[in-house]
Amino acid sequence: MPMPLTRTAALRLPLPATLVAWALPEPVVAVFRGSVAREARVALVRNGAEAQEILRSGSSLCMIVPVLRDRFDPFWTDYTVLRERFPNIPVIAVAMPGVSSMQAAVRLSQLGVSDLLDANDGLRADDIRTSLSKAYSDATAQRILTAVEQEFSLRGNACPTDLTTILKRALRHAHTHLPASKVAALMQMHERTLRKFCEARQLPSPQLIAGWARLLLSALYIDERGRTFASIADVLGYPTPGALRKQIVRYTARSPKQLRQEGAMCIVAQLLHQQILRPDAPQTPTHDERPRLVLLKSSEGAA
């Protein structure tokens, strides 16, 4: 019998382009397919070799694996080897019928997973999408931070620790407009306190950092194969692809196509490095002098 699927109002969340479903029964795979609809491809694999082939070929990925009752199942051996080769791919574990949540929790450390879904009482579409989005957003934030830190290192500098801390939290919410007040809330500070914190450490303002987070996330999506520019604009909450294109051209002096050809993440990370090291970079701009990056939000329409 097919597993029950409960669906409520659809949510627009950032999802990986491909879900690699490994060692899962077809009814569970069907639930995931129904949950992501056309927003993601679900690839069913039978063994580690097939999984590895897909993981090597793409970047916007998430593995879906079962938590089995038999800890000596051959799946565990193959999975452990693959996990060591691809430690940065997010993984969602599904506790199969007959495996209690407590048993599943004990094995989470063995699986190295991002989140756990319990199939004993049915799988809800919204729970699946939320789990996928969180795992993917966390993995994406880490990929971006690694790219930024590598760019600073290549230029002979260390990325400021405080900047990394704020960016990390902002990146996890960068698929929507991020006002300074929300960045402050993520840092558990008052907005004025965070602004003074950034000034004291010669960092861009909280709103500028939020803008950089949005731009960095756009760059990562542009670099990912299989994503159309229209889908990137949609997942980032822009009213039209033209609105996002206008922002990218304004801040990078390149079209999305040029960014993709040159390496979008590399270019944007270089621009961030230049912004941080510019001694004359405005930290608390006036309304008239405010850098246009502050306007990186979804509410601005296309020209």
Automatic annotation (TrEMBL):
SMART domains: HTH_ARAC
Gene3D superfamilies: Homeodomain-like (1.10.10.60)
HTH araC/xylS-type domain boundaries: 161-262
Presence of the UniProt keyword Ribosomal protein in the record: no
Region: Disordered, residue numbers: 279-303
Keywords: DNA-binding, Transcription, Transcription regulation
Name the UniProt record assigns to this protein: HTH araC/xylS-type domain-containing protein
InterPro entries according to UniProt: HTH_AraC (IPR018060), HTH_AraC-typ_CS (IPR018062)
Organism listed in the record: Gemmatimonas phototrophica
Molecular function terms, GO-annotated: DNA-binding transcription factor activity; sequence-specific DNA binding
